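From the thread on structure requests for the teaching lab: each student submitted one protein with a one-line request. Submission from student K.M.:

"Model acylglycerol lipase from Rotaria socialis, tokens only."
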Amino acid sequence: MIGHGPNLLFLTSQLFSRCSTRESKRQNRSIKDAENMQPWLTQCYYQFNTYRAGLQKRSLSIDANGTSMFSYCEKGTKMHGQPTVVFIHGLSSNKETWLPIVKNIPNDYHCITVDLPAHGETVGMKEEFYTIDKFVEKLKLVIFFDKMNLIEPMFIIGASMGGAVVSMFAIKYPNYVSLICLLAPPADEKYETARIKQLRQGNYEVLLPETTEQLSDMIRSLTVKPIRLPEIFLNGFLRLRLPLLEEHTNVLKSLLEHDYPYLNQRYQELNQISCPTLILWGREDQLFTVDGAHYFLKLIPKSEAIIFDDCGHFMAIDKPLEVAESIVTFLNHHCNCQVNRAYSHEI
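Reply posted by the TA:
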């Protein structure tokens, strides 16, 4: 027995070691499974809210082999005499950010939310560098509007960078546009906030977070309404964003280099916009100061503005119902397409 002692001790230690290793592997697998589940749960959250908003997700191939494709969501059907309402998101955002607003728009309006190139699930349209004009051309000439047969003048709505895209689109293609709505687009340098100055100094995490802490900080700074996301969803949102981080960084750098220095000069063309324009802004916007609303009011002839109290840059989070009501009221007033409709007040 004495002679077998060390062997027994060795076998026992090996057994415990293997059990410990197996347990460690199980724990590692559990952690990995939980990490893999985070973006999946976030995707499920998007899908559920897309369904609740009355939208259906679709894709539109723009080449023969399907390698280039726009991803978009659609609600309602196109009606003669009533403009389609098209929503264009901002930098590093996606079509789903419009869901809190679109779900409050009655179902008998035809609504489309679209992922811009280099964003969301739109694929195959990468550029060496990006400009506002390139986004305009992608929407028009790379056939999204044309191939969707959206030739009757549209009501196009843009948030933040998307607002700059929409305003330039309205100048270049006035026959495609009956109305536009701009949600806090970038204005001239004198309306900069500290966050924009940080971006210009190369602190891109202000808008392009790489950690959950940075993502939480971004959300807090751009909203007034307290957001209490469970950790698993916060991680899921971040993990869905990270694969596009390099391309979003390229977009941001390109815009800061090619567009931002000349923005005021380009905006002098806004007096060419002939369609009615609605400008929406949050009074507590920490990205583009609320005085930017007056800047655009002076430049765009047929414009009006609504300023929301207790509202930051992310109006879809802070004031989704109020934004939806403003959009529909503006549309009905200018297009004579009002019918018996009721708003959904579900949050």
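TA comment: The chain has one domain: 39-334. DSSP finds 13 helices and eight strands in the chain.
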